[in-house]
Specification:
single chain, 135 residues, mainly beta, Neuraminidase, four-stranded antiparallel β-sheet, three-stranded antiparallel β-sheet
C-alpha cells in the first residue's frame, strides 16, 4: 500500500517533472493505492481528493488506517481514517482540529500509536499518542 499523486493534464505532468528534476515533489493531491508485492493487481483504494497518506494495515490485514485532509477546506486539519482494502467502509477515527498522522499498531494489535499536534499549546510541536484499540 502506498500514496501517489497521478498528474493528468500536460501542465500537471510538466510541473511534476520540473519538480522532480530538482529532487522535489508537491504532495497536495495524493490517493492511496494497493497492489501485490510484485506490483500486480494495482488498484486505487481512495478517491477522496486532497492529501491521503501515511497508510498502515490494521492487524487483520483487511483494513487500513491513514491520514487525510479530504474534509478540510484550507489544508487542515488532518485526521485518521479507516477503510477496507476493497475501498469500502470509510470511517473517521480521530476528530482533531490540527494534525493526526503516522498511525501504527503494537505487535499484539491492542494499541494504536500516532503523531499529533493536539494539546501542544497552539505550537507546531508534534507528540506521540498511544490509545487502546477497541474494535
Amino acid at each position: 500500500i502506498f500514496r501517489s499523486s497521478r498528474p493528468k493534464t500536460e501542465a500537471e505532468i510538466k510541473e511534476y517533472k520540473d519538480l522532480l528534476k530538482v529532487g522535489l515533489v508537491q504532495p497536495t493531491e495524493m490517493e492511496l493505492y494497493i497492489c501485490n508485492a510484485d506490483g500486480s493487481d494495482l488498484r486505487q483504494l481512495t478517491q477522496l481528493g486532497n492529501a491521503n497518506w501515511s497508510p498502515f494495515f490494521l492487524p487483520d490485514g483487511k483494513r487500513v488506517l491513514f491520514s487525510s485532509n479530504f474534509e478540510a477546506e484550507r489544508g487542515f486539519p488532518f485526521n485518521l481514517y479507516m477503510i477496507n482494502t476493497d475501498g469500502t467502509g470509510l470511517e473517521r477515527i480521530t476528530h482533531g482540529e490540527t494534525f493526526d498522522a503516522f498511525p501504527v499498531f503494537s505487535n499484539n494489535g491492542k494499541y494504536l500509536a500516532f503523531s499529533s499536534n493536539r494539546n501542544n499549546g497552539g505550537g507546531r510541536d508534534t507528540n506521540l499518542f498511544i490509545a487502546e484499540w477497541k474494535d
